[in-house]
Automatic annotation (TrEMBL):
Residues 1-20 form the signal peptide. InterPro entries: CD80_C2-set, Ig-like_dom, Ig-like_dom_sf, Ig-like_fold, Ig_sub. The keyword Transport does not apply. It is found in: Membrane. It is a single-pass membrane protein. Keywords: Disulfide bond, Membrane, Signal. This is Ig-like domain-containing protein. One of its GO terms (cellular component) is membrane. Its main location: membrane.
């Protein structure tokens, strides 16, 4: 004897085989800056059945529904649907539903899901994608000298200490130091723990380095640069730079120029006694240099 509902089950299976609907692709921006708009796209295929409904979710919260021909948005924290722009973008679409989110914030981040339901079989299918929201600093970092360091008063042998601080951001920025365009010795850098306020972080880094003769050879100054970047799934954000000039308090002396690792004599002759002898001869021949 055939069990009750057996034929109904067979009918439902056959209906699913003949009529179906599927989500082909979901397009969600991987990284969005806070304050910008975000465009969500759901591409679906009607295989022998019509679309009954299309819904968008952020996590477990539904914020949008399309039941042809009406479109509705539902209040969800951090998700603001621009229904006017959404309706305009979908006026001629076929097999694609676009939803525009406006004024994206840090609380807009999460997993977004598009779910479709068939009109006849009530079959449902969904796809999802993650969206990350970042808050970019509103300007470059700032560099300040520590007590005893002055931008126009450095001498060979002095130890200079500078502090670089980022603007509020999320995720916390990464700070990198350069001296005259070159990366510094990592032992000169100490990074402080981020300070959070309202989900935004300030990061500070301290640089302490010795002023060597080769840095100020020829009386040139020292250019210290601090670069702030943010790491995301797409890579790093555009670097934001701050520079701090350091100038020698007086021109290098004759002896500093002779024994500087950047001088031509130092490169051509590696023996200090011979350098000393050459320096003495130069003093005898040209006393004004000494």
């Amino acid at each position: 004897m055939t069990r009750p509902g057996y034929h109904l089950s067979i009918l439902v299976l056959l209906l699913h085989a003949v009529t179906s609907i599927k989500v082909e692709k979901v397009k969600v921006p991987r990284v969005v800056r806070a304050g910008e708009s975000a465009r969500l796209e759901c591409l679906y295929q009607e295989d022998g059945d019509k679309l009954y409904s299309l819904k968008w979710w952020r996590g477990d919260d539904q914020f949008y529904q399309y039941v042809p021909p009406s479109r509705n948005a539902f209040p969800v924290n951090g998700v603001a649907v621009n229904l006017s722009a959404t309706s305009t973008l979908n006026s001629r679409s076929n097999g694609k539903e676009v939803v525009m989110l406006e004024r994206v914030g840090l609380d807009s981040a999460g997993v977004y899901k598009c779910e479709v339901m068939a009109d006849t079989s009530f079959q449902t299918e969904f796809r999802e994608a993650n969206m990350t929201v970042i808050y970019v600093p509103d300007g470059p970092p700032t560099i300040a000298p520590a007590l005893g360091t002055h931008s126009h008063n450095i001498t060979v042998g002095q130890r200079v200490t500078l502090r670089c601080s980022s603007r509020p951001a999320n995720p916390p920025p990464l700070l990198t130091w350069l001296i005259n365009g070159r990366h510094v010795n990592s032992s000169w850098v100490s990074v402080e723990s981020p300070v959070f306020q309202r989900d935004l972080a300030r990061v500070s880094s301290k640089l302490t380095f010795p002023v060597t003769p080769d840095l100020v050879v020829g009386g040139r100054g020292v250019e210290v640069t601090c670069i702030a970047t943010q790491a995301t799934r797409e890579g790093h954000t555009t670097p934001l730079r701050a520079s701090f000039p350091l100038h020698p308090s007086s021109p290098m002396s004759f002896w500093e120029r002779i024994f500087s690792s950047g001088s031509s004599l130092h490169h051509r002759c590696c023996h200090p006694p011979l350098l000393l002898l050459l320096a003495a001869l130069l003093c005898l021949l040209s006393p004004h240099l000494c």
